[in-house]
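hey team, just a heads up i'm posting the complex here instead of the shared drive bc the drive is being weird again. everything in one block, sequence lines first with there labels, then the predicted structure for the whole assembly after. its two chains so it's a bit long, scroll down
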Amino acid sequence: MTDIRRFVDGLLSNTDDVPDQLLQHLYSIQHQYSHIPEEAIQLLSERLHIPRVEIISIVYFYAFLHMRDRGDFDIRFSDNITDRMLGNLPLLESLCKKLGVEPGVPRADGKVTVDLTSCTGLCDQGPALLVNGMAVSRLDEDRIHKMVGLIEAGVPVDKWPKKFFAIEDNIQRRDKLLDDVITRGSAIEAFAVRGSDGLLEAIDKSGLRGRGGAGFKTATKWRFCRDAPGEEHYVICNADEGEPGTFKDRILLNSYANVVFEGMTMCAGVIGATKGFLYLRGEYLYLRPALEHLLQERRDAGLLGKNILGRKGFDFDIEIHMGAGAYICGEESALIESLEGKRGIPRNRPPFPVTRGYKNQPSVVNNVETFVAAARIAVFGADWFCSAGTEQSCGTKLLSISGDCARPGIYEYPYGVSIRQILEDCGAEDTQAVQVSGPAGFTIPPQEFYRKIAFEDVPTGGSFMIFNQQRDLLEMVQNFNQFFCHESCGFCTPCRIGGTLMKDLLNKVIVGHATAYDLNEMKKIGHLMQKTAHCGLGATAPNPVLDTMEKFPGIYSKRLLNRSYEPAFDLDAALEVSRHITGRDDEGAHIRYER
Amino acid sequence: MSTENTFRLDGKDIPFEDGDTVMDAALRAGEYIPHLCHNPDFEPHGSCRICVVDVNGKHECSCTLPASEGMDVDNSSEAIVDKRRTLLQMLFVEGNHVCPACEKSGACQLQAVAYHSGMLNPHFTHFFPKRSIDSSHPDIVFYFNRCILCGLCVRVSRDVDKKSVFSLSGRGSKTRIIFNSPSGEAGDTQLAITDKAVSVCPTGAILPKHLGYETPVGKRLYDCLPISVVGDAAKYHAVKKPFLNGDPDE
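-- predicted structure starts here --
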C-alpha cells in the first residue's frame, strides 16, 4: 500500500464518505504532500463517486490547491496594498534571491516555492506571509535572513521560532462588543429564558443588521429561515474574511470564539438547526486548533451536542470547514457551494439561502461579528445595544484599521462616528484618502472626511485603509484591480473579460500611453460590470477605478497623452525586437511620447 | 382584459405560468430575447449575460429571473442592446473568432446573435489567447479558440448524457474546458458523436469530423431560419439533414 493510499484511506475513514467533504480532503492532502498527487485524485474519484475531471477542476479553482508539488516550504507573501506599503515586494525579491528561486515557480530541487497571495488579514502587523499555511507577521530583512537559514537547513515549520508566528489581537478601542467578556453559556441561558420568539423580538428591536456589509436585518433573516419548509435547517458562520484590509474576525475568533459559537447555537435553536458550519478562510489555519479545542470543551460542558443545557431536543453541533484561497467564497451562495465541496461559483438568486441554502435546505449565513452581536443582545438586551449608534444603524462596528497611521489595529466604534474622528484616534496625518470597506467599497477624499460610518452613509464590512499624501493612489487602484482579476470566478462575461480589459487599460494609464478616450472606455466597461455581473464581486470590482476617476481625476489626467487616440499596443516596445537585431538603441530607434 | 399572470415586455402583455422565467414566457409568446449560454431544452445557467433586460429600472438576466406580475421588461431599447453588444464584443475578443475561416459560420449562434444585435466590430483589443485544438477523437474536433465558456456541453454531458465528459476548470480569465480522461484528451473520453453534448455548442468549438463544409454558404441554418431557432439543437438537425441530401429549395 502506498503512503498516499494510506493517507487518503485515513481521511475517508474519519468522515462520512460524502462528496461534500471533497474540498476538505483536498485541503488535507495539499497540506500533507504540498500538492494533490494524481493517485489521490484517482482514489477520491473512486471512493466518493465524483468524476476525476470535477476533482481537477476544483483543484484549479482554489488558489491554495496545486497539481504541481510546491516543495517542503510553500511560502506566500500577502500582497494587499498595505503589505506593499510596508515593503513586501523588496522582501519577496530578497528571499527569492537568497533562495535562488523565481516567484511562483518551485525550486529545481523541489524544496521551496515563493509566491504571492491575496491579503492574509495581517494588515496591522505586516508585511506578512504564509509558510505551509501558517501566518508569519512583521517581516523584515532580518526575519527573511533567518527564514533562509531554516529553509536551507530543512527545519520543519513547527520547529521555527515561536515569535515568527506571534499574532497580536491589537485591539485599540473597545465598546459594546469587545468590552467585558461574557461568561461561557450565558447567551444560551439567556436565550433559554427569552425563548425563540422573545429572542427574535429582542434582536428585531435592537435593529441588528448583518455586519458583513450588506446589512440585511438579522431577525428577519432568522425568521425567514425558521419559517421556510425543509428537512433540515443549517447555521453557517461566514469566517471567510477575504475583503482586503479586514481582520476583525481574526480577533473575534482568537479571543471571542465562545461568543461566536453561542450566537450560532442560539440561531440553531431559533431556526431548528442541528448542524452548523464555521467556514474558516484558509489563511486563518493557525486559529483552527484552538477553535477545535473550544468546540470540544463546549461539547463536554453540554453547550453543544445532544440536549444542550439539558433541554430535550435542543441538539446542535458545529463543524469547521476550511476555505482554500478564494475570495469569492465570502459571497454567501458561493460559500455554500464551497461547503458542498464544489468550485465556489455564486448561485442564481432567488432562491436565497434562507429558503434553499446548504444542500438546498433553509440556511442562515451570517458574519462572525453578527453572531457575536446577537449573543450579546441576548444577554444584555435590545436597549443596551441601541443606546449606541444611529437610528438606522444601531450598535457598534468593528473597524480593521491599517495603512498610514501611528496606531493600526481593531477599533470598535458606535455607528455614526465620522471618518475624521477615526483618523484622529488612530494617529493618521496628512491623509490623502481612506479606502472604506475594502476594494469593493469607497475611496473617500479629505473633503468627505465629515462623513459617518453607518449603513445610511458609508456602510462597511470593516476594512479601513489609510493613504497619506505621499502615496500614489493609482498603485492602490492597480493593486485592487489585480486582486479582482485574480479572484474573479470566471463564470460571467462582464467580470471575467471586463476585469481583464480594465486591467489592460489601467496599465496603459500607468505607463503613460493612455488618452482621454481610454478613460471613457474604462468608465463604459465599469458601468457594464456594475449593471450586468452575476454577483456582488463582479458588480463591485470596477469600484476602485470608477470611484477614483470621480474623486481623484488628477491621478489619471496627469498621466494622459494629449491626443485623441493611442493604439492599445506600445509602439516603442514593439520596436524592441528590431533594436535588438540591429544593435541600435539611439534616439532614432525609439518613438518618444509627447504629453 | 385581465392582467393576471402577465408582465409587459416591450409594451406587450406576456402571459406566464408559475415557475416560468422571463425567458421561458417570452419565448413561448414568440418574443425573442438573445441568449447564448441558455438553451430552452435545459436548465438555465445565467453566465453569458447576453439575455440582459431592464426590469423596472434594474438590469436582470432574463433566463434566470422568475417572471412575476407587474414587471415592465425592456428587451430592445438602444440602451439594452448596447449593453448586449458590448458583452458580445467582449466574448469576441476573449477568444479567437475568425468567422470567414470557421465551418460553423452561418450556423453559429454567437455570430447570429452578434448580427442580430448589430455588432459591426469587436471594438476592444483582442486578447489573442494561445489555445489548442484537440483532434484526438475519431469523430469530433475541438477548437478551443472558439469556446465562450458557456458550460452547455458540461451541463448536457453531465445531466443528459450522464457521462460528465467535460468540466470547467480553473477560475477567472484562466477558466477553460477540460476532458474527463487520464490523458486529458477528448479521444480517451467516453464521448460519442451521438451524445447530445456534441450538438449544443453555440459556437464552432465542437464540430463533427468527416462532413466538413457539406452545407454550402447561403443554405446554412441562419441563411434559412430566423434567429429564434437559436439554441434549439433539434431544429438545427431537422433543417440540416435535408441540406445534406440535396437542395432544400427543390
